[in-house]
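Any chance you could type out a protein's amino acid sequence plus the matching backbone structure tokens because I've never seen that pairing?

——
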Amino acid sequence: MTTVDPHPLMFAFLAWTLTYLGYIDRRRSRTNEASTAARQLGHAYTLVFVLSGAAFIESDVTGSPHEEQRYAEEMLDLANEHGFPFGWLGDTFTAGGH
């Protein structure tokens, strides 16, 4: 079983909360903290989780296709490299959202 590390997860959920409160710049900062923490841990599953959430937020809320694509591509590359079942998300992001 693969789990998500709680430290980066905390930053990722804070990023989502800040987005829905309208603090987009703060959200990006927390997303960066979450991905940095996951990278420092060397925990690919956590990083894939953080990146998928970031891509979704960019797709669904902030409407930044460049950022969405950047997050989604890294997430899909990592997921494929490690055999994580996140491949179905690629269709969502590459098709331009929901």
Observations:
- Helices lie at 6-20, 24-41, 44-62, 65-82, 87-94.
- The chain has five helices and no strands.
